[in-house]
Amino acid sequence: MGVGIRGLILTLASVKDEFESHYEWLNRISTCEETMLKQIVLNLVRLQTSRSNSLALHNQVFLYGKILNTKTRLCPSLYLATDIKDFEKENTRTVDSLYRLCVNIKKIRQLKGWVLSKDVAFVEEIGQILKDMGANEATIANIFESCPEAFLHPPAEINSQRTLWHSVCPNDEQLVKIIEKFPDSFFCYKSTTHQKANIEYFQELRLSNKIISRLLASSPQIFCNSVTSNKKIINELEQNYLCLGGKQTNFKTWLMKLLSQDPFILSKPSLSMKGNLKFFQSLGFSNEEVLKLLSKLKGVIFDINREHMEAGIMFLKTVFKCREEEVKHLIMKCPGLLCYSVPTLNNRIKCMLDEGISVRQIKDCPNVLELTPQIIQFRIQKIKVLGHNVKNANLDIINGTKKDFEANYGKLHVKKERPMFNPVSPLHIEE
């Protein structure tokens, strides 16, 4: 049998010139056809029972791949296994099933090759569940490639997860899109009791199913917490909100906004938040101002170090030569200043001073300190090409997101190209 197979491959090699004349056609073969081609080679390897024959066929298959397609090269080190030992360890039934679904085995080997060695896998079963939900072949392959653990879970577990997620996302089409984007959240985080209880708790809080499904996808860890733990954090958030003058009727809306900005606040200690709120109050911020800071800083307020904030505020006072009231104004205008260390702020200010920008300009537009030196230099150089000088000018022109800057730059460009007169307006000439 082994001699016959080698003879077949050598026969293919003998028509090398004919195959080379068809490279253009071969390069257009579909992914599925390429997978079928790999399957043929895989079967040839399996027919070689002895290790010596397998090693001999290694080189012959490489030649076969080289003849067929110079781009893919059907070499065992790329498509069958990193070496013969790895190939022998893999579960052939799992590999066969993945090939039939047109899954890129190479990606799985690079990402989490150990899953291919598991004795039990449910490739076909999980693929069928996803297919029943409306997923096409490409989507199923994409899910398996990005989350190989997906086919290691029994179908009963996956159906249970599907039922659970249906409680907040009943539409299968939408659910498949979520799974494709966040496969780990669906397949790897399973704490059914906690998940179900937390979903019910969030629904009792009247959070929308859209928000809950988004949380379940982007931060599944918080659903693995006990309901008691999540309730404690939310109750403390509510108390702080009410103490700062917030209205009970607005709390649910405020909470939804806060969770959508940073859902991981439910996994952070509340003591840090209490300490930071007291620190703001000690600086003279009113309850209303602290509440605004809390909303603007999103969940960052849990992570800000009090010592770093104190150092940053002292630095701003020194650089801008301002009083406490002025520092409060700067912080309210740009709360992000509290998040940066003194060396970072110093580096950014120095960069702008080197570009000819004055301290006064920075003080009038403190949000510019949220930009890195590289971005500042790039934007300044770009508007200089249009003949615009930032010295003594409003820094709003280089401030903001990339989209904001491009809009401002576009206005400058149009202004430069605008003609000095309207060519279609009538000329008033005395006759």
UniProtKB/TrEMBL annotation:
This protein's record includes keyword NAD: no
GO molecular function: nucleic acid binding
Signal peptide range in chain numbering: none
GO BP field: termination of mitochondrial transcription
Phosphoprotein among keywords: no
Pfam families reported for this sequence: mTERF (PF02536)
Domain of life: Eukaryota
Alphabetically ordered keywords of this record: Transit peptide
GO cellular component: mitochondrial matrix
Family of the protein in this entry: Belongs to the mTERF family.
Full protein name: Transcription termination factor 2, mitochondrial isoform X1
Organism: Xenopus laevis
